[in-house]
Fold:
Amino acid sequence: MIESQKWGEYKGEPVYRYTLSNEAGASCGLTNYGGRITSLRVPDGHGEAVETVLGYSDLGSYLEDEHFLGAIVGRYANRIEAGEFSLEEEEFSLTCNDGPHHLHGGEVGFDKRLWRAEPVKLAEGPGVRLRYLSREGEEGYPGTLSVRVTYLLTEANEFEMRFEASADRPTIVNITNHNYYNLSPDDDTVLDHELFVDSDRFIPIDAEGIPTGESRSVEGTPFDFREPKTIEDGISSGDDQIRFPGGYDHSFVLNEGPGPDAGLRSPASGVSLTLKTNQPGLQVYSANYLKGRAAGSGNSPRGPQSAVCLEPGNFPNAPNEPRFPNPVVRPGQPYEATTRLGFRAEPSRDSGQHDG
Structure:
């Protein structure tokens, strides 16, 4: 089922909120402002709907949001050092909005744009398709980029995100979603969440969050999530890489294989998710800078480590790092990125308090 309602206005244009729902009791709320996921609810082991992402209850809070809450981020997600890169022997300077660096598309990235939206009924389930035309020179990027994003909810409680883009001249592209996941919304921390990442190597960063250019083995480090462990295990390690950003804000080099690329489980709610993507990396961000704003269910205050972001994509600063995958998109060579989340429920740690 697909429902829509006018949610407000942005610069004189209408903003809509859409709700996707299935027969299994799952639902997704989203808006065409920034393509933001406002809600993603799935049934727990008792059939009760559990909110799995942080979100605001009103459009005004999204218009003031500085944390990319639930948004589509691009044209290039993550950081680009000094906002500069060269392409086809030409130098480009992007808007710098993270100190001296470019982050998530700049001052007015995809997260702050109004997208054209249309409900779609696909074979897998209900969806919404969003379109945006990013003009030549926007935030300093070369070329005009036509972007299409499709959100889809299946009857198997899977949520799929498809990102597609085509350019009229060579440009750089890295588009992802910036959901903040907390699978036990009554808790104000995800430190007890168990994280799994199918990765043998991670990307070290300097004190400003810029990759050093190397990849490093996770063996014997707080970045070894090849077997599930709690987020707190790593954050409490005292490792310099954890100390720099005040938690996790790192890309993992994903292994190739048929199984999930990542997983997250809350022992409190018994809800877990798996993530599968066609992208080379996964940015894990433990909401280290989320503070001073309401961002929980019903706009309740949330702070650092109250959620975790799992952002598939290319690596930070890839336009300047030849050892990373090439982020250039050319005419006739479209960009395609997909991510599928699968949800399931099992007995929670307090399930004995419920009547059977």
Notes: The radius of gyration is 19 Å. Confidence is low (pLDDT under 50) at residues 352-356. The chain has one domain: 2-353. The domain at 2-353 is CATH 2.70.98.10 (Beta-galactosidase; Chain A, domain 5).
